[in-house]
Structure formats: structure tokens, C-alpha cells
Design brief:
The chain is of the alpha+beta class. It has helices at residues 15-28, 101-109, 117-123, 154-162; strands at residues 32-41, 50-58, 61-65, 85-89, 93-100, 130-137, 143-149.
Length: 164
């Protein structure tokens, strides 16, 4: 993406959200390529097993950021919030793939789960969600994998990573 191209998603946004992205681009010193709401699963950087926020790919980095949520109206008490901000340099990304939840479970467990007849029946009516799986090379030579679910236009993410 050249310096003057703009993320196509920005064109149809309300002015206040477009302004948020303009400020984010100035703050990071790079252009946003694609963004989505996402849920980060099981990351060591997150204080909870799941964190919802925004996932955005920029020219040099992949970012995930969450924001404080208002307290649940029934409890109406302050929650302890700890910000999650992931910055993954694109130069450290080894692979990006789309994987269905069922395939992710097989990889994490190392074997296919046993599925009963009732589960097979209900599986006909429930979708098998797609996860965006990003594998990063660590400085110590190892790897770290991040899983994101509920990513909008998952195929467009793969295309964005492939375009240089």
C-alpha cells in the first residue's frame, strides 16, 4: 500500500469514527490497511481468557487493542480494567491463516473430539466459526500464536497480509 492510499473501510464511517482512525494513524506513524472488531483468545498479554476490542493491520504492524467497558447495569460497581495493547511487527509474522473452530480444537487438543449423534444433529444448525490465526516469531527463536474470532471479512484479512 502506498503512502497515499487510504483504507477503503474509512470512506463510509461517521465523522467521529473516521477522526479516531486519522488520529490513530498519526499516533502510529503509519496507514491503516484493514480493521475489525475481534475477540482475542487466550493470549498471555491479556488479563482474561477472552478480550474483545479492535484488530487493525497497518503498514508495519498488526495491532489489537481493547477499551474499558461500562459496568453491567445490574451490578453497577466499578470493575478493575487493565488495558490490552498488542503490537506485532509484520516482519515477525511467520503465517496467517483462517481456521474453523473445529480445526482449531483439533490442533489444540492434538486429536479429534468424540462427537455424539445429538451434537452432530445440532452442528447442522450452528455455524463452525472461522478464526484468524497469526503465528509470530519470537526473539528467543520460538513462536507465539494468536487466535482472533469474530473478525469481519476474514478472507479480506488474508488478502491484506498477502499484499505488500
Amino acid at each position: 500500500m502506498t503512502q497515499h492510499e487510504q483504507c477503503p473501510q474509512l470512506h463510509n464511517l461517521p465523522p467521529n469514527i473516521r477522526q479516531f482512525w486519522e488520529e490513530k494513524q498519526q499516533e502510529c506513524g503509519e496507514q491503516v490497511i484493514i480493521f475489525s472488531y475481534a475477540v482475542l483468545l487466550g493470549s498471555p498479554e491479556a488479563s482474561a481468557p477472552e478480550k474483545s476490542g479492535i484488530l487493525y493491520l497497518m503498514e508495519r504492524n498488526l495491532w489489537f487493542e481493547d477499551f474499558p467497558k461500562p459496568p453491567f447495569f445490574l451490578y453497577n460497581r466499578a470493575t478493575t480494567y487493565k488495558k490490552t495493547l498488542l503490537q506485532i511487527p509484520r516482519t515477525t509474522i511467520l503465517s496467517v491463516e483462517l481456521i474453523r473452530k473445529s480445526g482449531l480444537e483439533v490442533r489444540l487438543q492434538g486429536k479429534s473430539p468424540r462427537i455424539g449423534a445429538l451434537q452432530k444433529f445440532f452442528a447442522l444448525f450452528t455455524p463452525d466459526p472461522v478464526y484468524l490465526r497469526v503465528t509470530q516469531k519470537q526473539e528467543n527463536g520460538g513462536t507465539r500464536t494468536y487466535q482472533f474470532r469474530e473478525v469481519n471479512e476474514s478472507e479480506a484479512w488474508i488478502q491484506a497480509f498477502q499484499a505488500e
